[in-house]
Design goal:
The complex is a heterotrimer of chains A (338), B (429) and C (301).
Chain A (H helix, E strand, L loop, with lengths): L1 H26 L2 H26 L7 H19 L3 H23 L4 H14 L16 E2 L15 H24 L2 H11 L1 H6 L4 H27 L1 E2 L6 H14 L7 H22 L3 H22 L4 H23 L1
Antiparallel strand pairs in A: 1-2
Chain B lengths: L1 H24 L13 E8 L12 H14 L7 E8 L4 H14 L4 E3 L4 H10 L2 H4 L3 E4 L15 E3 L4 H15 L5 E6 L2 H13 L5 E5 L6 H13 L4 E5 L2 H13 L5 E4 L6 H6 L4 H4 L3 E4 L10 H13 L7 H19 L6 H11 L23 E7 L5 E3 L5 E4 L8 E2 L15
Parallel strand pairs in B: 1-2, 1-3, 3-4, 4-5, 6-7, 6-8, 8-9, 9-10
Antiparallel strand pairs in B: 10-11, 11-12, 11-13, 13-14
Chain C lengths: L1 H30 L6 H19 L2 H31 L8 H21 L4 E2 L10 E2 L2 E2 L4 H23 L1 H11 L1 H6 L4 H26 L3 E2 L4 H16 L5 H21 L7 H13 L14
Antiparallel strand pairs in C: 1-4, 2-3
Helix pairs in contact in C: 1-5, 1-8, 1-9, 1-10, 2-3, 2-4, 2-8, 2-9, 3-8, 5-6, 6-8, 9-10, 9-11
Classes of the chains: A mainly alpha (338), B alpha/beta (429), C mainly alpha (301).
Chain lengths: 338, 429, 301
């Protein structure tokens, strides 16, 4: 009973979030709308890492490659069979999930640094495969056109607003799905396996299967993010999925607080805002060009280290924990006073 | 007294503010985005950092050097040309978001010389400069597709295409190396597949072809390539790759005393860049090379002399190489396009100016450009030269022999093109 | 001849991977961490070496300068970053992945700072001895005095480190802290200092890898040198092939990887450069997950 109520409150919150985004997209200029779409894409990619790393305890430095799988699947279907765009996104999820299942099967035998290194090698190796098959369009890539916004939305409705709507809707849906997954029996199994594999096995959890499942789902979500990324840039090409993308998504997840979904938007916003912020700082300081162009990289990497060291569970969770502690303390003193 | 003054001040500033508002409102229809009474804003995205940035990150400095010279000499009808440069790290996602910033936030009039086929394609698809009417001048890629007016109505190519280059190389091989065993090193992406298409059109047969993955070109890889060419006993080896591939290949060839007849493609054939990586000049000696613009060491050429003088003053100590020459040449052509676009240039008049007069713009290239209403093809050919004992590309026998062709099935012909003389003081006329 | 040259190409490339793999193993042994910043640290050491060469003019001075610089920097990283990590993030849900993320962050910091200090352009270190191939019966081999030197350096380093680990008290302490830190601590070993030393040794080995990778190429390097991302991945794979815990295994793993890649590129396709290491790694993990040399313990950290 209580749970059902909680579920419906969550659903209401997500719908409310959608309404807020709808009005927001009408108020800001086109550049912000585009950035909004990028943020939505990052939100999805980051939530896939939170599920994988924060919950199941597996680390991936190669989610950029899985995003590429989703993006290419969507683009090839769109070009070769002219499938409706929604089907392209569904197939993107499936294709990346299959890739993830294969990788997950290998990953279940690995852990920690081994998995990190293997996925790193994948991130470097996979995109270059596009040059080996003609259907994938080589270095210059494939066009990926989701089409114009429906006329019913009016003449003033820009392409970027359309991108933003699609991406934001996908982000809301995938966050809702991830949230429910994390709160389900699967989520508890992942958490149990992450904490103590042997203990989890003793309680009857098949940790190997549970890990492969986490990898598969995470990959599917990453595939969706990849297809949406391709939508925002209108093309799919190997260079759109560099190693730095895998690192950026992981960074976003860490900054968001890798063990909770709560900060995911914060993580995505930070990724998009930092280059702009760095620009402003560099100009304020009147720094040399070599400093200016490398400042974003320095800030992101520095934040990554500081977060892991001092707020390992992310700023949102930290704040919540502090508040909980604070109120517990207050409650304690209150009792004494009585 | 004090209070009165303050009130006066407030009234005055309110009046100023209203005037200010009004003045921003009125000329909106008269002026063009990015064009004010004092300046014209242009934007450029290209890799300034990352593995793909080497060499290319000199282009903005080169273009700015020319624009600074232009601005110091009156600009374009009194307007100064400013160039805003953004780093895209050669990642399409970055290219799209940085181009959006240039168009939507910085409000540039036109985009200048964006680099890389994948990036330009992504920008064309997502940002869609064509729909916005934003000119994309002189894209820095040899992909032939950007000459297509229907697909990319506001985009202009400038470099001759890879297909043209391969066709001209094939023709030269037919004339000079008939019956020899030919080897080809190429990048296994579109850069290479375009080359293969060109060689096929020219009917060139290879004894051995060696593809390499972009980014894999290092000394160890080059040792492997050479081993393959040796095994196939190639007499002539064509290096159709980027300069790091050429450098790795020639450097290792020197160590292994491997000396076939080299033939270097223009993308990776800049002598200054190659020699800076430590390749001995002697290895380059007698290699055959191709370029659309004069040799960067040819100080008898009025353009080369003029550009290198400006560049030496603007960026002291930086070598004057092919990227610099091409960057300045692009800036020079842009200046002429802006001048030709009328007293109050608009995006539309700029496009019309290139369509109608672009083919006659003075510039350093030794081959004609093909701009018209129906085609945005850039330069259409190359001259063939040999590298000197000091490792510099120079025309054979002292005179530039040029060939022109197209990206389709058209023939390769010796060109009779006469380059227009440089306008006085290197300013657009 | 083609066969011999393919083998020689693989051996030289492999010996540099081996140096990097040794660095991975040393860090792994001392702190059970894979240092993803290892290639960044090698790059930084190469810049140290460059500064020495351009001031003093001798590669033979630059090499120890780079090694000492690399060792000091690595020790500093262990002292500050790794200890803070142990203090703040050794328990909790992300304890397992925290070191991976922290070293990745460090990689980014090193790269950005290098670009800020030295700029993005190519710098150059010239090889100390000739890299011209030996000529036998009129044909030139892909093997030179310099490449021979690289092999000798790898062998000497392996030998010295083996002696250090097997024959000295310090080595005993190093091994003890790696395998049973608590027991080692109880027997009076300063486990913390020993860990720092492990990192310092790795930093020095990485410096050698960086310098020789540079001079064995055309001598050019920049913050964005692709060579250094390759060093990271290849060194890691070589270390995994070797079992991650064994110095000899690291060397064998490096040579195995170098030779295999060389043959794949020569006889299958030279376009497989980036995907080949991944496939080799997957095959190794499936066929022999404990590595070529390594105890059968699975790939658990």
């Amino acid at each position: 009973m209580h749970k059902a109520k909680q579920e419906s409150t969550h659903l209401t919150m997500f719908i409310l979030g959608g309404v807020v985004l709808y009005f927001l997209s009408g108020m800001v200029d086109e550049l912000r709308v585009y950035q909004g779409a990028t943020i939505a894409v990052y939100v999805i990619a980051i939530s896939s890492i939170i599920l994988l790393t924060g919950y199941s305890g597996q680390v991936s430095l190669g989610h950029g490659a899985l995003m590429a799988v989703g993006a290419y699947a969507a683009a090839v279907l769109r070009i070769e069979f002219n499938l409706p765009i929604i089907l392209c996104f569904v197939v993107a999820v499936l294709a990346a999930a299959i890739g993830g299942a294969l990788l997950g099967a290998a990953a279940a035998r690995l852990s920690g640094p081994y998995l990190a290194g293997t996925t790193l090698a994948l991130a470097i190796g996979l995109p270059s495969l596009a040059n080996q098959f003609e259907v994938l369009g080589g270095e210059q890539g494939l066009l990926f056109d989701v089409g114009f916004p429906p006329l019913a939305l009016g003449e003033e409705f820009t392409q970027y607003k359309w991108f933003f709507w699609i991406a934001a809707l996908a982000a809301l849906i995938s966050m809702w799905v991830v949230r429910n997954l994390l709160n389900s029996a699967y989520g508890r199994a992942w958490k149990a396996g992450r904490g103590n594999e042997v203990a989890a096995q003793l309680t009857g959890i098949n940790t190997a299967r549970s890990k492969v499942l986490a990898f598969t789902i995470s990959a599917g979500i990453a595939g969706l993010a990849g297809a949406l990324l391709a939508m925002t840039i209108g093309t799919v090409s190997p260079s759109a999925f560099p190693l730095s993308l895998s690192f950026a998504v992981l960074t976003g997840a860490v900054l968001a607080g890798i063990t909770t979904l709560g900060g995911v938007i914060l993580g995505a916003v930070v990724l998009v805002i930092i280059p702009e912020l760095a620009d402003v700082i560099a100009h304020r300081l009147g720094a040399a060009e070599s400093v200016t162009i490398n400042l974003p990289g320095l800030i992101v990497s520095g934040l990554l280290i500081l977060t892991v060291l001092f707020v390992p569970n992310g700023p949102v969770e930290q704040h919540r924990a502090r508040k909980a502690k604070h109120s517990a303390l207050l409650g304690g003193t209150h009792k004494k006073m009585q | 007294m004090k209070a009165l003054n303050r009130r006066k001040l407030i009234t005055a500033s309110a009046v100023l503010a209203i005037v200010g508002l009004a003045s921003t409102a009125i000329p909106a229809q008269a002026a063009e985005v990015g064009v004010s009474s004092t300046q014209i804003k242009l934007g450029m995205t290209l890799p300034m950092t990352g593995t793909a940035s080497l060499g290319y990150n000199k282009i903005p400095g080169a273009a700015k050097a020319y624009f600074d010279y232009l601005n110091a000499n009156g600009g374009i009808n009194g307007r100064k040309v400013t160039l805003i440069v953004k780093d895209d790290r050669y990642v399409p996602t970055e290219a799209v978001s940085k181009t959006n910033e240039l168009i939507l936030k910085d409000k540039v009039m036109a985009l200048l010389a964006p680099l890389g086929t994948a990036n330009v394609k992504a920008v064309a698809s997502s940002v869609n400069p064509a729909r916005r009417g934003v000119p994309v001048l002189f894209v820095n890629t040899g992909f032939s597709g950007f000459a297509d007016v229907k697909k990319y109505p506001t985009t202009y190519a400038v470099l001759p295409s890879y297909i043209m280059e391969a066709k001209i190389m094939g023709e030269y091989i037919k004339e000079n190396f008939a019956g020899k065993k030919i080897g080809l090193l190429y990048q296994d992406d579109d850069f290479g597949t375009d080359a293969l298409a060109g060689f096929k059109a020219a009917g060139t047969k290879f004894a051995v072809t060696v593809p390499y993955a972009s980014g894999s070109q290092n000394a160890a890889a080059a040792a492997g390539w050479i081993t393959k060419f040796k095994a196939a006993e190639a007499d002539v080896v064509i290096l159709f790759g980027v300069s790091s591939a050429t450098s790795a290949m020639l450097g290792v060839a020197a160590q292994l005393k491997y000396a076939p007849q080299w033939m270097l493609g223009s993308v990776g054939g800049d002598a200054t860049t190659i020699k800076l990586t430590g390749v001995p000049a002697g290895v380059l000696y007698n290699a055959i090379g191709f370029s659309p613009v004069p040799a960067t060491t040819d100080m008898k050429d009025e353009y080369v002399k003029f550009f290198s003088d400006i560049y030496a003053k603007a960026v002291p100590g930086s070598p004057f190489d092919l990227n610099v020459l091409l960057g300045m040449n692009t800036a020079f052509m842009t200046a002429q396009a802006l001048k030709a676009a009328g007293i109050n240039p608009t995006r539309k008049s700029l496009l019309e100016a290139i369509d109608s007069k672009g083919a006659t713009f003075a510039n350093s290239a030794l081959v004609p450009a093909g701009y018209s209403k129906t085609s945005h093809v850039g330069l259409t050919g190359y001259w063939v030269g040999k590298y000197s004992p000091t490792g510099d590309l120079a025309p054979i026998g002292g005179t530039y022999v040029t060939y022109t062709t197209d990206s389709g099935s058209g023939p390769v012909v010796k060109s009779t093109y006469k380059r227009p003389a440089m306008p006085a003081k290197g300013l657009p006329n | 001849m083609q066969l011999l040259n393919t083998l020689l190409i693989g051996v030289t490339a492999g010996s540099i991977y081996a140096l990097m793999a040794i660095a991975f193993v040393l860090v792994w042994r001392s702190t059970r961490v894979i240092n993803f910043a290892q290639a960044g640290m090698a790059l930084l050491s190469t810049y140290f070496g460059y500064e020495a060469v351009s001031r003093i003019g001798s590669f033979w001075v630059a090499l120890p300068v780079a090694m000492i610089g690399g060792a000091l920097f690595a020790a500093l990283v262990e002292l500050i970053l790794m200890r803070l990590l142990v203090k703040h993030a050794s328990s909790g849900p992300i304890a397992g992945v925290a070191p991976i993320i922290a070293t990745l962050g460090l990689l980014g910091v090193i790269r950005s700072v290098i670009s800020m200090i030295w700029g993005g352009q190519d710098l150059r270190i010239v090889a100390p001895i000739s890299n011209d191939g030996f000529t036998i019966n009129g044909s030139t081999l892909v093997f030179s005095p310099l490449k021979l030197l690289v092999l000798v350096v790898v062998a000497v380093l392996l030998l010295l480190l083996t002696i250090l680990f097997q024959k000295t008290n310090l080595g005993l302490a190093l091994r003890a802290s790696a395998h049973a830190p608590e027991i080692a601590r109880l027997s009076g070993v300063k486990v913390d200092s020993v860990r720092t030393l492990g990192w310092a040794l790795a930093g020095a080995a990485g410096a050698v890898a960086g310098l020789f990778q540079t001079v064995n190429g055309n001598g050019n390097f920049s913050p964005d040198s692709i060579e250094f991302s390759l060093l990271l991945v290849s060194g890691f794979i070589a270390a995994v092939i070797g079992g991650l815990d064994s110095l000899l295994g690291a060397v064998i793993g490096g040579l195995f990887l170098g030779i295999t890649i060389s043959f794949v590129l020569m006889y299958v396709s030279s376009g497989l450069f980036f995907i080949a290491p991944f496939i080799i790694l997957l095959l190794v993990l499936f066929i022999r997950p404990q590595g070529i040399i390594g105890v059968k313990a699975g790939r658990r950290a």
